[in-house]
Design goal:
The chain is α/β, with parallel strands linked by helices and 417 residues long. The protein is built from twelve helices and 13 strands. The protein starts with a helix and ends in a 16-residue tail after the last helix.
Length: 417
């Protein structure tokens, strides 16, 4: 129980941290490994992000939405990357990228809300758990109770909700507290063994974040897009997303990277990239989806740059709730589907691989005669990242983190020895 002094002190410190936009205070690190999970909300069209240019049925069934073989960045004889993934392709060449295709969570319906719930809770059903799989994995990684998990968001997403503590960070809209005020708070808690240390760590973290946001080298390069979107589902209104939303991804990823790179910074982070619901005017090498891919590519490149030497200890998993229909709809877009793509990148990754069991695009091979048939459970990728990278014990994966996934063991050979 707090005595009166500690209760008053905690209240004042919370006010000070809130006024300066600070929400993070970390204890000593337990691992040098970093794991980042980037969620692409809205359901990515995997057949455009990673076009199967070597499939003889691809151009015919995709029609006006097919990526030309000459435009795709080459991966192997079957697959290429969308041409806007320039930095991801550089990582592929450097053997720091693994591409997954025909992959999905166990969810087989087409609701954004339920699909994202299944992706983030890790259950076979969207309502199977009330907490996130990444939160449940933190104790096994030694990261449960020391603020080592970070959400780049106003509030922690479902994947990080649970018993373990997670911090949040976003740049503040309101002005930061001035230095005179912060100096008074420092003096007030200079001799407090709990609040003094927490305040000091929080101020260092905020300074690092502010430096990342102010660094000219992190300035956004994505083309502006007009319109508006709904934050929670990732669904775009009028088929567009606001310019600030796309452009800010690079700065946010860079800020997260600099926080992760700090010796006493977080070890796990979650990034949210919304706006992938391309029902209308999806486009190919330009258009709605191409702009989102370019923004994602720039953000992931900025994350790598900001991590610096820490990149060698980092793995980034990029996932989405489900895919899109194989055939275009009547509005030049695609509707909600099933199988899709995922990415694993980083300096700890055994890259230069495409992991895909490819059944093809003939009508008889599709899921319910309309969607790409998934042949891999994305939880197998998540498990590999946890056990082979963060060294979460295998027994924790099967008992606590993904208890209903025994048929989907961790993928092998994804990380350097």
């Amino acid at each position: 129980m707090f005595d009166r002094r500690r209760l008053l002190g905690a209240s004042l410190a919370a006010t000070a941290l809130s006024a300066s936009g600070i929400r993070i205070a970390f204890a000593s690190p337990v691992t040098d490994k970093r794991l980042v999970v980037a969620i692409l909300r809205g359901a990515v069209d995997g057949l455009t992000a990673v076009p199967p240019i070597g499939d003889p049925d691809y151009a015919k069934i995709r029609g006006s939405l097919a990526i030309a073989q000459t435009a795709a960045l080459p991966l192997d004889t079957t697959f290429g990357l969308h041409p806007a993934f320039a930095q991801l392709h550089e990582m592929w060449v450097a053997k720091q990228l693994v591409v997954f295709h025909a992959i999905a969570s166990p969810y087989r319906e087409r609701s954004h809300f339920d699909g994202q719930a299944a992706l983030e809770t890790g259950g076979a059903k969207p309502d199977g758990f009330r907490d996130g799989w990444l939160n449940r994995a933190l104790p096994g990684a030694g990261l449960a109770d020391n603020g080592r998990a970070l959400a780049v968001a106003e509030t922690a997403p479902l994947i990080l909700l649970g018993k373990s503590r997670a911090a949040t960070w976003m740049p503040e809209i309101l002005p930061s507290a001035d230095e005179d005020f912060l100096e008074r708070v420092r003096a007030l808690y200079a001799h407090d063994p709990i609040l003094g240390r927490s305040l000091s760590q929080a101020l260092k973290t905020e300074a690092s974040a502010r430096a990342a946001m102010d660094d000219p080298s992190t300035a956004p390069s994505a083309a502006p897009v007009a319109g508006a979107m709904t934050e929670n589902t990732g669904m775009a209104m009028n088929g567009q997303r606001p310019a600030a939303g796309l452009a800010s991804l690079t700065a946010l990823a860079s800020g997260a990277g600099k926080l992760l790179a700090a010796p006493d910074g977080p070890r796990v982070a979650v990034l949210d990239f919304s706006g992938w619901d391309t029902h209308v005017a999806e486009g190919t090498t330009d258009g709605t989806l191409a702009r989102r891919i370019a923004a994602l590519d720039a953000a992931l490149g900025a994350l790598k740059t900001a991590l610096g030497p820490t990149w060698k200890d980092t793995a980034v998993i990029v996932a989405t709730e489900f895919g899109r229909t194989v055939a275009p709809n009547g509005s030049g877009g695609t509707d909600h589907g099933t199988g899709t793509v995922a990415f694993l990148l980083g300096g700890s990754v055994a890259g230069g691989q495409v992991r895909a069991t490819w059944g093809g695009l003939k009508p008889a091979e599709l899921y319910q005669a309309r969607d790409l048939q998934p042949h891999a459970d994305i939880r197998s990728l998540f498990k590999a990242g946890l056990t082979d990278h963060l060294t979460v014990p295998r027994k924790d994966l099967e008992k606590t983190v993904f208890p209903d996934s025994s048929a989907s063991p961790p993928m092998q050979g994804l990380f350097v020895a």
